[in-house]
Amino acid sequence: MDRALRMRRAYLSRQQEERNRMPWYYDQTQNRWTWADYQGTSLVTATNSTIYWTSATSTAASTSLWYPGTYTNQTQSPSLQQWRQYRIDAQIAQIRVIERPLAAPAIIQERNEHLRQRLLEEGWEEMQHRPRRDPLPPSQDRIERLMKADKRAVELLMSHLDEQQLIEFNEKKSFTVEGASGQKYRIECAHSYSINIHVIGKRHKLCAHLGSEIPSADHFLAQKLMLEHDESRFLRLANRHAA
Amino acid sequence: MDAIAPTLSKMEILDPTGHTEITWDPNDEESVRVARETFNRMTGNGYQAFRPGPAKGQRGNRITTFDPSVERMVLFPQLQGG
CB neighbours (10 Å) of residue B7? Predict the structure, then answer.
């Protein structure tokens, strides 16, 4: 599966998990959002602009937390951002925050449905289908600049290769480097700078590179220098992929 | 008698233009100052510097402080796992 897609799914999953820990549910009888404390000792009341949290077990004003909310509609669930802020405020006020309340599945379902409705209203579907890149082709000027940069980067890379590496590069568009440990690596230069380092004799490849705005040959040079002169650091940075 | 041309050292900074080259003469204080300032600025921004091996079979090393006697060095941003 595409790595970016996997990371996106993991991110959404973490967000969902965090949402499920939000101890809020909508009390239909009271017509307000309520704190789902399994000890039944806390109550949250919401007004048009603020959320007021009160601990039923304490009479001291200092243990209550006045939490300024940004939402103005009582029928709207607090957002993830508000919940995160709430936890920070609660920590400062030394109020115990229950991370995992005994929320019935029905409550979570209702909350998720509410969130889904909000996302639909805010144009989530449209966002998903919005083209992410400029559909216009790059200008001739930009193409020329990119080609010039590529050429300079290749020249620089070749100036850093020794004779054997140069022969290999010209013949196979790859070259072999040796780390301080004696392990040899083959840097593939034919295609992408991503997942292009074969660990010779092993069954995995390595991937570590610079930012995408830098020409490919510069990535290969950086990989070569790090593998040859700071191999252990490179191995700590690089991700492994099955060959 | 022909004058001996000074040996220029160079710093190659990998960037979107392919690379930017900065040269200095170890005997010229002004050019060394400019090169040192550039080195400090780039490493302060997270760049890492390497001195390639002077010849085949000889190892280079990572550089953390500017040394004007180094003949060639390459600077590039931190690599990231992909």
Answer: 9
